[in-house]
Fold this sequence. Notes:
five-stranded antiparallel sheet
Amino acid sequence: PTYLGRFVEQNGGVSVYSSKAGYLRKGAGGWEILPCEWAKVNQTALKTVGINLQDGHGATPLVRVGQVLTSTQARQGISSPLPPPADHHHPKTWNPDLRLRYRRLDKIQLGGEAKLVVAGFMSGRHFEAVFYPPNSTSKPISTQHAWDDFEDWVDSHKPRGKLLKLLQSKDAKAMYPHGIPVFWIGNGARVEAFGFSQLFCVPYKQSIESLVTAREPEEPISLAESMFGYVEIEVGARRQARRGRVAFGAATCTHQTPPLQAVPVIPGNPAATCLGLYLEQPPARNVVRDNRNHGLTTYDQNEARLRGRKFYWHRRNAWGVLPPNPVKPNADNGVSASYEPLAAGVKFESIVTFTRLSRLELGALLAAVRLPAGHAHKLGLGKPFGLGSVRLDIAALDASTDKTRYASLQRRRDPSPALDVGSFINCFESRIGERCACEFNEIPEIRALRALTSYDQSPDAKLTAYMPLERPDKNDRDSPVYANKPVLPPAVQVAIQRAP
């Protein structure tokens, strides 16, 4: 509802579209939008004048816009006069009396300056748009402040970039002489956001980046920053940078294994819009859900807070029970990838070089590398599918002076003197425990980390699978699946549910 509220406003019990129309163009001061009037037109009315648009699978915005630009009928323009706003009944399950106020063309006459503007096919949508020529009194509105958001949205998906190029082509300029047709929202004097379709992507008021706790000028340099370095941190009244004192070398394969059978998958991460995963939410008993509202904290609220750092579970044997690829071959818009993972047993060797670390700092580094028995690290892009579970062992720990280390360019294989890894780890854990007034492994964040790094006692793969997208009753508000936005349970709670 908070997102939909960007596009629809209530006016005397009637819903009114906030989306405005206009032509995007490059002006003397940068990108700007020249406002114009628009109306909806039923697809059935378009067919009566010979404008037939592709429907069903594959009818993407790129395909359908290309059809319009090459259609003899569409290129003639539309001469139907601008209809007045009217209230239209659009009943919904959650609001059987819903009325929308907008302009609607019921009959089409070809041969005019109004232009047909289309979007991709959606089974529940039966209307396209008609943009009328700008009025002589229309003044362009600058979009430079919103251009970065629009460009990020275009760059995040290749077909969008192709669509932008198509709308800047010679055929598009002949069809739309005033500029690229776009929808936008704003207060009339300022554009908040814009896009190619009526319900385009609008940035939330707060992003993940903006929700990351800002560093206070008086905040001391953290242990990780001190070890790994930092750039442009404000310390007191000065901004400074420091190079790190830890360097990771390349990993060389020392024991190869045959690759497993390649499987097409769709790699990716849960979207930031998964509110129950990314944002802190009130306890389940305090969440008030109704037929219109999920009752969750959203990115549009000032009190929104990130719940933590994202980390993947070990999913043993999950690679063998992957769900079928939901995208048909040659129709995936480039979102599929073929994974050919290595079988268990492959080994690599690497060197981590450090300089001038205290006992506490060296203990922190060693504790991060050598996890307790039965635990493992997660590496690579295949983590959601059960790949990338890696055990790290410290073969040797060597501390020497620069004079000794640089005496030869050859790699040293006989560490001398040998150091006790455990003593440094114990130093680190005891110091952190003292700071937290708690035994190290009982610190809440460490308990959650241990639950997630446990490999031998990892939860059953079914307990950590992605939430399903299917809607058994095709009603988001009543379906107890992904669309109903369940809140992600804490890691420790999931670990308790592990199968025996």
